[in-house]
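Two proteins, back to back. First:
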Amino acid sequence: MGCLITNGIVKSCDYSVSGIQRVYITNFNKDTTYTNDTDSDAIATITLGDPTDKYFYFEPLDNTAFFQDDLTVGSNGTKYRTHTVTLLLDGNVYDYNKVATALDLGKFTVVTVDASVDSVGSGAVRMFGRMNGLSATANNLASGTAVGDSKAWTLTLVGTQGELHQILEDESVVTALLPSTTTP
């Protein structure tokens, strides 16, 4: 009996805001290593597999970014996780054209910061695609039809993983890996 429940879950008595407020993306590299904190088991450090790689900050439009971490059962009974991260990015940012093709064709690891904050004012920091990376299943620009509609790029990254998404100790674990010219 290898898979036994060892504790329950009690609902917290806190306000909860859904969604993601910040997103960081890097190229997936199987040689990237992670060190977990011995007490919390959260990822405490990341060493990128290629020293030229960095995480890059992507600012989603307000109230448009979300993640899913789904249990998937294959036709032969195998079980795995499907990680999905979706965000809308400003359609007026013309620099997006410089990265659109790379996002279309690449494979990535994604870190998100929840919109809901804890008692010290920070949202949970989550990593998706650590084992096998995430790839784009959608990356499209839509103009909207009315004045108030959103003109935005919709980016959806999806990947099959052999684990739940991972928790990072805090946002500084990933911001330390940003290019020096980037400030979220």
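And the second protein:
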Amino acid sequence: MANHELTPEPAPDEPPPLQLLADPLAPSFDRRARLVRTGDTEHVVVAERGDRIRLRVDDEWVRVLAWVHRAELRPAVARDTTASGAHRALGRGAAIRLRAGAPLAFDPRTGGASVIIDDGALTAFARVPGDALGDVWRIAASSAAADATTTPPGQVTTDAEILDTPAPGAQVLARVERRMAATAELPSPVPGWHLVTLDSPHVSVTGYVHTSAWIAGGGRIVTDTAIYPADQDGVELPEGTCLYARPGGALVGVVLVTQHDATRTARGWARWEWAGFRGRVPLYARPMADGFETCPGTLPAGEPSEPS
């Protein structure tokens, strides 16, 4: 039975699979998209065919070329833009700048007239120009975020609200989801308030924060670390192994980290299950005299074959 995630197979005018699976990928593949099912993960867009979008999906273990429907894509800011307040014009000195790729959701409290941008660091509330909304964006169109290695003059505490004017009850521009580095206009223009600028990967907000939420000087900000599942016994697929949609079918992926839980089919091909977007998807490795077929040029230089 055909797999709806891996078909239709490439058209004759599309680049060959090895080119789409290569590492590094050619700079011309500069479009990105997110899936509703995979949250904040960005995927490279390698082809479009009507309402079908072909994505290059990298997870911890494999790289796969998979087709999805456009309706499955998460809304995003399609180009760098300056937004206005969710409810009214911004106060003097306040600003909301959104970078291409900022993930968004339409705010039901305003009937979808405004959006909520939550990138894990900042949650901003704004109105975005209609021509800046979409589901696919070009990374070349997005300006770089602030240098994260620069020592900031201070930090803003978790759950602090950034306001457009220095007064209680003012319009909320953004909420800080975790303690963030920030720059501030010093001396403070208004007693009891700081005019601060916070930069996250997708959002830059300038607004007022109460002095009670301001921490002078730098400090250690703890980030999460990845946890990987343990290997399981089975047929081993080394890194660089080519993966096919079916035995003898289209090349659609490559193993990035050695897998130990594949099984051998009656025809000698190895069968391995990818988590997929809608459930587990079988992928197949072609048997060779010395193991399994490998895809040259698809692995980054110097990468370990096992997570440490």
